[in-house]
Amino acid sequence: MSTIVNRRDLDFLLYETLGLDSLLEAPRFSDYDKDAIDAIFDLSQSIAEEVFQPFAAQLDDNEPKYIDGKVEIIPQVREALDAYKEAGLFMTPYDADIGGMQLPWMVHQALNSMFVCANTSVSNYAFLTQGAANMLHACGSKELQDKFLPNMLAGEWFGTMCLSEPQAGSSLSDIRTKAEKLDDGRYKITGTKMWISGGDHELTDNIIHMVLAKIPGAPPGVKGISLFLVPKNNVNDDGRIGDSNNVALAGLNHKMGHRGTTNCLLNFGESGDTIGYLVGGENQGLANMFHMMNEARIGVGMAATVIALGGYLYSLDYARNRPQGRHLTNKDPETPMVMISEHADVKRLLMTQKAYVEGALALMYYAANLLDQIKISDDQQEKNTLNLLLELLTPICKSWPSEFCLEANKHAIQILGGYGYTREYPVERLYRDNRLNHIHEGTHAIHGLDIMGRKVRIADGAALKALAAQVMSTIEQASQWGGLSQHGQDLSASLKVVQTTLESVSKANDPSLALANATLFLDAMGHVVIAWMWLKQAVAAQKGLATGIPADKAFYEGKLAACQFFYRYELPKAICQFELVAKVDDTCFNLTAEQFIGT
Amino acid sequence: MSTIVNRRDLDFLLYETLGLDSLLEAPRFSDYDKDAIDAIFDLSQSIAEEVFQPFAAQLDDNEPKYIDGKVEIIPQVREALDAYKEAGLFMTPYDADIGGMQLPWMVHQALNSMFVCANTSVSNYAFLTQGAANMLHACGSKELQDKFLPNMLAGEWFGTMCLSEPQAGSSLSDIRTKAEKLDDGRYKITGTKMWISGGDHELTDNIIHMVLAKIPGAPPGVKGISLFLVPKNNVNDDGRIGDSNNVALAGLNHKMGHRGTTNCLLNFGESGDTIGYLVGGENQGLANMFHMMNEARIGVGMAATVIALGGYLYSLDYARNRPQGRHLTNKDPETPMVMISEHADVKRLLMTQKAYVEGALALMYYAANLLDQIKISDDQQEKNTLNLLLELLTPICKSWPSEFCLEANKHAIQILGGYGYTREYPVERLYRDNRLNHIHEGTHAIHGLDIMGRKVRIADGAALKALAAQVMSTIEQASQWGGLSQHGQDLSASLKVVQTTLESVSKANDPSLALANATLFLDAMGHVVIAWMWLKQAVAAQKGLATGIPADKAFYEGKLAACQFFYRYELPKAICQFELVAKVDDTCFNLTAEQFIGT
Questions:
Q1: Residue A156: CB partners within 8 Å, gap ≥ 6?
Q2: Cβ(B574)–Cβ(B528) below 8 Å
Q3: What angle do CA B79, B84, B87 make, to 5 degrees?
Q4: For residue A49, which of A415, B81, B119, B235 sits 20 to 30 Å off, Cα-Cα?
């Protein structure tokens, strides 16, 4: 069986649960029908399984090395990215007007996710390039686009995002990289950037860095940040690569996971002038950088989700083929051993993974669908509502999988026991890879502050109202199926708890204290949203069962069981968390640094 | 500050909370007073910090290699173990009659924990040797002891435990290693053992394996297992090392953590005869192997705890020295950044670590104290009660830290952000090291079955009654301090929930279903026990505060805050879990292997 995708479930999520078929009726996607999309998935799956997945462990064990100022990477990385390029996959996220495939974002996410699951470290190079190209396309001048974009779209040159600095990780307001305007309108860039994934390598002839920097005299803080395009090598007017632009690799970071992606400390303008090109307006850098932020954050959530999908599928396959022990009531050691998938706790560990992974997958595709719906809608009010919903869900999309799909990876290791803890099996690598996702693209805490301090309040709670309306619509559908009505009632009750929790917290006098447990709110809110996603899936499964196709019976029963699991085992935990958040507890908030250990 | 031990807290736990001073009054420990023990701690801490800790990262990055049939390990490992040996520390766990230091087990655990925290991989070699020697001392014949024990006690020869086989991990009943009796009373051993930590290396001239095997004709299952001493090299009658005993290293496993400890697949009797010596009676192997099981399992729990202590102390130090961002209400980017220990969510992450780590530490020392009390008691009824309490607490001691102190390590990474995810900082290594502890010495699920299927029932619930009596006594003490009475009431209520949960579950018709959520019961029961440990600490802190020594004020306030945190943020989660367990839910239990993904 495949350990990077469950195609039956992908169909179920995209078509039966989230209505991709009706999306395909929009003129924007008229080039595609299910057969065409299946063919794209077939192609992606085969490249991911045959070219990306086989060397994931080898790459993890042979991370890029910094030798004589250059990066050495095992050759399979380039071969894999060449295969991706030759299949035309670099073009999947773009619109037709620039030669892109103009796929629904749901489909783009789905095919990308196969590469992430197969070999996260390699897929990073492609996705960073697509992100940088999208930003350039959205905000750059025609001249800049003409010069740099075609090679990026073709996957000939890779791209990066350069935000953090050693002294400014989460606090972009404090970046120091300087951009001084030259007479010809270009800028001289000086400074140091940290944590730059794909920041240097020899995989492509050029690397296009999208760099945040400050122009002298700009306003303090984030209002004074501008965005620059900084190529590794200068590009001549004829489009050919010129001399070095003096972006110096100062060192590689050595991570716990994602070991195949170079992660760099870069110095700009140290060994000679580094030239940058302004992208968008002066001091508009943060807005420009955040242009693709919802997509990027859903991308992180999707990565966290499918890294756990890999662990789930692998551990399921293992559990169904590994004999060990006997049923509890069988005390005869001379009877044959049973497969460990027969043991109750292994079932619970598998079910927990299923509930987390398939619940999160549904949310990722739901959010991608919102992006698609926003694009095809010509009703401004509908667009606004969809945008509000997307804004509210984005911190959950990014954060919930980071937390709970990491937990799923932990369970995959447990199922393999001692084997799972070794590098001879993939599950520990997936666990290591997944631990990053709480940290980048905004830490877990930052998303807590975002949702609780901003998103639930925007437009006087309109986003939350939009969400509630969607949830109530699913509950209404569920009420038509006897087996789901209790879940619907539980979900409705939990929505009310969200509301009362926010009301309680709003009465706090100290705004900082009110947000002190925002991370707990974020996690619990995520549980409510995932419970909704499970109810959506349960409705689809009931419909599927009603069609009576025998081959699908076990599949749909599994969906209904996973929904039930989420409502009985998981949702009550969220209620318990909301009760805590509602109390605006100050136990941690009031603690001084001395009180932790007494000195 | 030290990042392997908080000596102020160690004093607080051992003396102020758990009464080590009164234990030292027993004749068994008359050689020791607090000054003597402080000197032992000073010595241990300095060797752990100066010799073990400095190369922990280097060892992790340079794991032992299998070259030409031999194991190559970086030289610092031997140097560190030599320093441990020369300081006489191999002798800490033994009684005076065999030349041991006859320390209280609490003290032995405390000093060992410093080495675990400093460099887990290296400490493993010492502790495995001490475990094997203890087993030989407890169960071996005088002849065997005379031949092998002195060199093990001196740390000249190391020891291992050989239980698992490739086809029999958790299911010892299915081991196949064979022991055929020879005419001279010795045994010929053939078979393969898996996951043998310290199973081969060149650190010592000999390795003494304690091996489980079956004598042909023995009863099936665990009743037919015997224990054998199998040296790597034969030992002549004059005590000198003879020829090879044909224990062949078939390969090394490459783990996610614990990378400095060799972990081996060993073949016995493949390349020539392997001779074993029966330890204890035929078919008594499991009982003999389990002789030191409570100690070993508390040792695993202690390891899980102090690996998290290392993360806690490191991340606390980092948070107090890393400037980043500003208070939420300060919107002026030109004001200086604050230390991240000022941010509410960082405080919460630190407090969670403190509550888990110091709660677990208290339990580990409490359990060690039980071992000490059992040894010094001459009242058989008291001994029985203490033994029951120890039996009940052992699965919690082993499992709770494995689960929750791993979570603490996860939080330490989060505090360091991107830095925490790199191998340039120790917190990711600690996280990787800690993930093993759910798996070895009985998996998490096995301990769930142990506590819920056996321990709560033994002697008609006498162990649970003994626990309740102890808990109620702490609640009684707490009631004398106004600030603690609510916690006492909450703890008392949770004890009742344990009882009602067990009553509900006992009504289940299917005994397998009744235990299907045993792991959840184990975790929740652990929370109740840790809540009790926090109440014990809070009582001690209140007493401490009442003495009015100003230097300790912040320390005691931190203890009271951590207790409050545990009761407000953690204990309610356990109640929620008990409610689930009480329902004897069959959602996972009834699932078939096909239903997970539909095929």
A1: A85, A204, A205, A206
A2: yes
A3: 120
A4: A415
Q: Which of A56, A68, A72 is nearest to A121 (CA)?
A: A56
Which of these, B21, B183, B598, B106, lies nearest to A537 by C-alpha position? Answer: B598
Give the contacts of A190 (CB within 8 A, at least 6 positions apart): A177, A178, A180, A268, A269, A270, A274
B420 contacts A439? CB cut-off 8 A: yes
CA distance A254 to B438: 27
Cβ atoms of B132 and B143 within 8 Å: the answer is no
DSSP state of B566: I
- A323 CB neighbours in chain B (<8 A) are 167
Token duo for residue A462: 């309109």
Per-residue tokens: A160: 């990066």
Residue B340: closest CA among chain A residues belongs to which residue? A593
Taking an 8 Å cut-off on Cβ atoms, the answer to whether A253 and B554 are in contact is no
Contact, B457 vs A442, CB < 8 A? no
Name the β-bridge partners of A275.
A188
Interface predicted TM-score of the whole assembly (ipTM), two decimals: 0.98
Which H helix or E strand runs over A413? helix A380-416
Contact B226, B214 (CB under 8 A): yes
CA pair distance B279, B261, nearest whole angstrom: 26
In chain A, the residue whose alpha carbon lies closest to the alpha carbon of B427 is A256
Helix A518-547 × helix A571-582 angle, to 10°: 150
Residue among B194, B253, B516 minimizing CB distance to A344: B516
Q: For residue B212, with 0-12 CB atoms within 10 Å meaning exposed, 13-18 middle and 19 or more buried, which class applies?
A: buried
- B421, B424, B593 member nearest A436 (Cβ): B421
Predicted TM-score (pTM) of the model is 0.98
Phi (first) and psi of residue B29, to 5 degrees: -115, 25
Separation CA B445–CA B431 (nearest Å): 21
**Amino acid identity, position B401:** P
Token pair of B402, please? 């494995």
- Full pLDDT tens readout for chain B, 599 residues: 999 999 999 999 999 999 999 999 999 999 999 999 999 999 999 999 999 999 999 999 999 999 988 999 999 999 999 999 999 999 999 999 999 999 999 999 999 999 999 999 999 999 999 999 999 999 999 999 999 999 999 999 999 999 999 998 889 999 999 999 999 999 999 999 999 999 999 999 999 999 999 999 999 999 999 999 999 999 999 999 999 999 999 999 999 999 999 999 999 999 999 999 999 999 999 999 887 788 899 999 999 999 999 999 999 999 999 999 999 999 899 999 999 999 999 999 999 999 999 999 999 999 999 999 999 999 999 999 999 999 999 999 999 999 999 999 999 999 999 999 999 999 999 999 999 999 999 999 999 999 999 999 998 999 999 999 999 999 999 999 999 999 999 999 999 999 999 999 999 999 999 999 999 999 999 999 999 999 999 999 999 999 988 889 999 999 999 999 999 999 999 999 999 999 999 999 999 999 999 88
Q: How far apart are CA A333 and CA A58, in angstroms?
A: 40
Selecting from B195, B350, B597 the residue whose C-beta is nearest the C-beta of A596 gives B350
For residue A587, the SS3 value is coil
Classify strands A187-197 and B70-72 as parallel, antiparallel or unpaired. Answer: unpaired
HSE, CB side, 13 Å, CA atoms: give it for residue A176: 8
Contact B333, A219 (CB under 8 A): no
How distant, in Å, are the alpha carbons of B107, B181, B391, B398, B444 from that of B366?
12, 44, 13, 13, 21
Q: Identify the H or E element spanning A153.
A: helix A142-153
Cβ(B372)–Cβ(B104) under 8 Å?
A: yes
Nearest residue in chain A measured CA to CA from B583: A568
Helix-helix angle A380-416:A458-478, to 10 degrees: 70
Element (H, E) at A252: strand A247-252
